[in-house]
Every structure is written in structure tokens, then in C-alpha cells.
Design brief:
The protein is globular and about 40 Å long. Strands 2, 4, 5, 6, 9, 10 and 11 form a 7-stranded mixed β-sheet that branches. It has no helices and 11 strands. The protein has about 120 residues and is mainly beta.
Length: about 120
């Protein structure tokens, strides 16, 4: 059972990146997925999430209108589309998964599985 986050890189402010969260050993469609990010010296914060049941999404205010989360069940992958990136979006991004769930939360202990993180760097 493994989650693999990928797609990070360096981009200029205003640019876009798409992060992927791929699962092996389980079916992501059955899982609530959360994307978190962390800057050195700061707490890991929730960015956006989607519930397994109903597909409810929730995002932190700072990414409203810029970040979206989507599923490709055929590829067993969840995506984080990030547009209009800002330098303050620079962080290591993690995906996390929890079986089922009608809602999603930005609580680390809510999630069972975590990916290893992928670095996003946004330059001004």
C-alpha cells in the first residue's frame, strides 16, 4: 500500500503546475483525499481535499479560485491543479488518503496513508 506524490518543480509566479497522487495496493476512488503543504519551520497545513462519498471538496481560503482537485479513477490517481501560483505557495506538497468518508478535513490524524511529498518552488 503506497501513495506516490509527484509533479513538483520550479515555476514563476503566475504559472501553473499539476501534482499527481497515485496509489498502489488500493483503489483511490474509495478514499477521501487531502493535499497538504509544509514549509520548513511551519506546521503542515491543509490545502484542498475531496471526500470519497459524494465528492465534497474543501479548500483553504488562500487557494480559492486557483487550486482544484480532481480524480482519474481509471489511472487510480488524484490531481491537484495549481494555477496563478504565488511565491507563498512554495512548499513541499503531500497527498493523504483515508478510506471512505462523506466529508474531508484538514486534520492530519484523519488520514491513514501519506505520500512522500513533492517540492513546489514559485519564484517572483
Amino acid at each position: 500500500v503506497q501513495l506516490q506524490a509527484s509533479g513538483g518543480g520550479s515555476v514563476q509566479a503566475g504559472g501553473s503546475l499539476t501534482l499527481s497522487c497515485a496509489a498502489s495496493g488500493f483503489t483511490l476512488e474509495d478514499y477521501t483525499i487531502g493535499w497538504f503543504r509544509q514549509v520548513p519551520g511551519k506546521e503542515r497545513e491543509g490545502v484542498i481535499c475531496v471526500s470519497a462519498i459524494g465528492g465534497s471538496t474543501y479548500h483553504t481560503d488562500s487557494v480559492k479560485g486557483r487550486f482544484t482537485i480532481s480524480r482519474d479513477n481509471a489511472k487510480n490517481t488524484v490531481y491537484l491543479q495549481m494555477n496563478s501560483l504565488k511565491p507563498e505557495d512554495t512548499a513541499v506538497y503531500y497527498c493523504a488518503a483515508r478510506l471512505y468518508g462523506r466529508s474531508c478535513f484538514f486534520v492530519r490524524d484523519y488520514y491513514t496513508y501519506w505520500g512522500q511529498g513533492t517540492l513546489v518552488t514559485v519564484s517572483s
